[in-house]
Prior knowledge:
By secondary structure, this protein is an alpha+beta fold.
Amino acid sequence: xxxxxxxxxxxxxxxxxxxxxxxxxxxxxxxxxxxxxEMISKYQFMEVNTQRRAAGLKEKVPDIxxxxxxVQFLHSRKPGSEPLETxxxxxxTLYAKAVIPPxxxxxxxxGANVMLAYPVAEAETLLESKLATAQQSLENCEEDLDFxxxxxxxxxxxxxxxxxxxxxxxxxxxxxxxxxxxxxxx
Length: 186
């Protein structure tokens, strides 16, 4: 199957305009209903994972921006200028004082307890790239979340249409098989 997908490969949900295009008899309803419910579950699973990824990126982007701002500030300092005395955050509740002379090298945390020294200009380029990538990923997550919600809604509507079609078919069959009984009870 070459099903249509969004730019990140998430497939479009089938839009059910006419139920007869999906089922030809009541016997097929249960299987189709299960298939729709399974697709809804898959979309909901993707939605939860995308929400988690977006939440992580929302935390990551400001950190990268803050680091980039500091590297740009260090890059703007002249080689002969006075050392800068500052307080910096070591963790959420711990700060330390430092005297920072003009420098041409910075150390960046790369993750997994790895820190590397970079020339200031190279660090700035790296952080700009990381920031752009994180912002694009966040934008993609937001797009995907909207897309997934739309697909879930489409499938919920399809499920409702299928259910309503089945109820209508049951009533028709009941009316055809025992029409006299129905009128007699009313």
